[in-house]
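hiii so um. not sure if this is the right channel but i have a protein structure encoded as tokens and i wanna go backwards to a sequence. like what aa goes where. can anyone help
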């Protein structure tokens, strides 16, 4: 005979590590070419002058300079104008 009751199996005992998303460089800080400025899911922040976007929507610096964050209106797919943050390297 068993001394303990049947415990069953646990199904939610695995966890994935965090993806380390967010701002990597603050506004006004200097960056070098190729340096990551923002890691994001989707286009929450838009690329501006002096920046490029990777396949996973990561914004990189395309040239050496200082980072600026500017609020701008962008047109959505439905035609509605929505405010978004634009990342620039000047």
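sure thing!! here u go:
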């Amino acid at each position: 005979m068993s001394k303990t009751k049947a415990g069953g199996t646990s199904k939610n005992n695995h966890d994935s590590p965090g993806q380390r998303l967010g701002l990597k460089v603050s506004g006004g800080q200097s960056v070098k070419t190729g340096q990551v400025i923002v890691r994001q899911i989707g286009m929450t922040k838009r690329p501006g002058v002096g920046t490029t976007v990777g396949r996973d929507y990561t914004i990189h610096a395309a040239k050496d300079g200082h980072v600026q964050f500017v609020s701008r209106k962008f047109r959505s797919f439905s035609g509605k104008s929505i405010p978004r943050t634009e990342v620039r390297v000047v």
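oh and The beta strands are 22-23, 30-31, 36-39, 45-47, 51-53, 59-61, 65-75, 81-89.
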